[in-house]
Amino acid sequence: MKETKFAREGIMLDKFFKMLANDELRAWYGPDHVQLASDRGAIGTLLIADELFRSSDVVQRKKYVALVDDVRSKGGEVLIFSSMHESGQQLNQLTGIAAILTFPLDVEVVEAEEKAAREEEEEKRLEAEHEAGLAAGA
Questions:
Q1: What are phi and psi of 93, to 5 degrees?
Q2: Cα separation of 18 and 20, whole Å?
Q3: How are strands ordered across the β-sheet holding 77-81?
Q4: pTM for the complete prediction?
């Protein structure tokens, strides 16, 4: 049974690396990028190292558990790689987290959208504070 699990992990990790080389808009890695892809419901397969769930930082652990739950709730597959196995060690060298997306997303476009959304929120917040200040002064 374990050999089947490790074989599946190896196959999916190979698929990720091939996609990274040939279709990079569908192969994302790193915690921030993978979270952005998850927020957009784009993850078909999440590859995550078990080490991330053993972090001494409780907030970090909860973040990864929530990410796994989110991917599963949107119909994505989650593979948790053992750091004791070669494929898990390879994944750890690549930040410990990667995703094969169901549709292409351009990292730069998504980051620009996120930045614009944050700036818009900040603008609304400042406007609301300004309005509250005017109302208080009236």
A1: -70, -20
A2: 5
A3: 27-29, 97-101, 43-49, 77-81
A4: 0.81
